[in-house]
């Protein structure tokens, strides 16, 4: 019998973490309500708080700029490889 780990969607995690941040229910109540262990809820809450810090500190913007730069480099490399492929195809086709 194989035990498979349950995977939760990002939307579900965000919803539960937001409820935990609101503090209207205890972790035990949230765990019973959503069928998730209290430790997971506290982990998601901590991740949500850490994520909010990066949003307001500009780290998210820096990471996005870095990703855009990487994508730009990859597009340039793809263009170079396409040109090389076309050149070699013509050279061997003669």
Compact summary:
The protein has 94 residues and is mainly alpha-helical. Helix content is 81%, strand content 0%.
Give a verbal description of the structure:
- This protein is mainly α and 94 residues long.
- Helix content is 81%, strand content 0%.
- The chain contains 4 helices and no strands.
- The protein has helices at 10-22, 27-34, 38-57, 59-93.
- It starts with 9 loop residues before the first helix and ends with a helix.
Defining traits:
4 helices, 2 domains, mainly alpha, 0% strand, 94 residues
Mean pLDDT, to the nearest integer, reads: 89
Radius of gyration: 24 Å
Overall shape: elongated
Overall number of structural domains: 2
Strand segment tally: 0
Summing up helix and strand content along with how strands pair, one would put the structural category as mainly alpha
The number of helical elements comes to: 4
Helix-strand topology string: HHHH
Quote the beta fraction: under 5%
Q: Name the helicity range.
A: over 70%
The major beta sheet can be summarized as: none
**Span of the ends, CA to CA:** 61 Å
């Amino acid at each position: 019998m194989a035990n498979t780990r349950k995977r939760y969607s990002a939307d579900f995690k965000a919803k539960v973490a937001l409820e935990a941040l609101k503090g209207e229910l205890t972790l035990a109540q949230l765990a019973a309500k959503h069928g998730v262990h209290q430790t997971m809820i506290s982990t998601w809450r901590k991740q949500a708080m850490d994520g909010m810090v990066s949003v307001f500190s500009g780290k998210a913007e820096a990471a996005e700029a870095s990703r855009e730069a990487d994508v730009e480099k990859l597009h340039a490399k793809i263009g170079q490889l396409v040109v090389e492929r076309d050149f070699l195809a013509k050279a061997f086709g003669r």
